[in-house]
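Complex record, two chains
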Amino acid sequence: MRFILTVVLLIFACTSIAQKGILVDFKFGLLNSFGTDASKNYESEINPYSFGYNTKKKLKHPSVNFMAGLAYPFSKKLSVGIQSGIYLRFKEQYYTLAQRTSVMPTLQVTAKYKLFTIDDRWLGVNAAAGMLFFDFTDVARFHNSILYNACLSYQLTRKSSIQIGIENEADRVSIDLKKFDQNLFKSDVLKYNINRLFFSASYSFLISK
Amino acid sequence: MLKFQIRNLCAVVIIFFTGCTQLPGPLPANHAVTFTLQQPLNYECFVNHYVQGVPNTKIGLAIHYTVNHISANNNGPTYVSVAEGTLTFNPSTDVFPLTFTALSPVSGPWNIVVIIEGTQCAECANGYGDQQEASGPCVSYTYTGNPTTYQAAKPRWQGGAGPNNNATVQNIRAPERIPNVLNTCNIDCRIQ
C-alpha cells in the first residue's frame, strides 16, 4: 500500500511541477505476453529430489499500466528521466492454479531519442529499465521484478505520441523445497528468475509545454 | 481541469485495487507420465538377513508412490492425491533404473513421493534412527559398535520429484535413507 501511495503522491507532484525545461507526461499502456515457456531441473544436493521450475513463462491475460514521467531534455533529440506508476495484472496464475489480481508499483529510468521527422512528426526510440515492486507467496515467493523496455515512438499530435515495442520482465522467485514438500529431509532454498516477454503498446501525452 | 481528472482517475484506481486477491483455480487434467526411478542409495549393501549365516542375496523391495497436485496460498501448500500405487522389486529379475507409469497433472506444481521399504531384513539397516525400520520379524542380529548398537531391520528409503512442467518423462533421483540414521553399511557389510 505504501508503494501505491508513493506513486499517487508522485503523480500529484508531476501535475504541480510541470514547468519549463522539464517534460512531464502521462502514459497508458497495454502489454500482452508472448513466447514459449521453458523450464529447468534442479537436483537438490541435500535432498533426494528433482525439482522442475520455469525459467520462461508467459502470462495468460493482457495487462495494463498507468505511469507518469519526468524527463530532462539534454538536447532537441535526447531526453532522460524517470517514470513511475502502476501495473495491473488480472487473474494471473503464478505458481499454482490460483488466480491473482495484482497492483504492482513501478519505478523506471527512461531515455528518449528522436531519430527523424516524417511530415513534421518525429519518430524516435524509447528505452526504459526499472523495477516492478511486489511480494507475495504462492508456494514460491515472488519478490519484485527487473524490467527492460525498448520501443519505437511516433508523434501523433503536438503533445501526444504512441509507443510500440518489447518489454522483458524477470521475476525474482525463491522457494524452500522443504515447504514445497514436507517429506523432504532439509530446507533447501532455490532462487531463480522467471523471464516474461511482452508486446507493449502505449499512448502518452505531455502536460508540460 | 486536467489535474482534477487525473486525481479522480488515481482515486478510482486506488479504491478498486487496494491489494491482491487470490482465487482458487480448477484442478488440472491428468495424463500418463513415465517415471524413471534410480537405484536407492547403497542398495547393493542391503543383503537378506532373514536367516542366520552369511547372507548373499539382495533384499526385495516394496516401492510405494503417491502423486499429488499442489495448491497453495499464503498459509502453505495443500496436497491432493491424484494417483497412488505400490510396485514390487524382485532383485533376481528386476533392475534399476526402474520405469513405471502413473497419472500425473498436466501442469504444475505437483510432486511424486516415493517410499521404498525392504521386504526382508538386512543388518545394514539401522533400527534406531528411523523407528519404522525397527519393525518386522528380523532375526536376532546385533552389531555393537562404539557407542551405537545396530540391529537387523527392514530398511527404508525416500525420494521424489517436484516437476512444474508437463513433460511426460520424469526422473526420480536415487532415494536416500532417512537422515539422522547412521549409515551402517560401511561397517556391518564390511565385516561379513
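Note: The CA atoms of residues 7 and 13 of chain B lie 10 Å apart.
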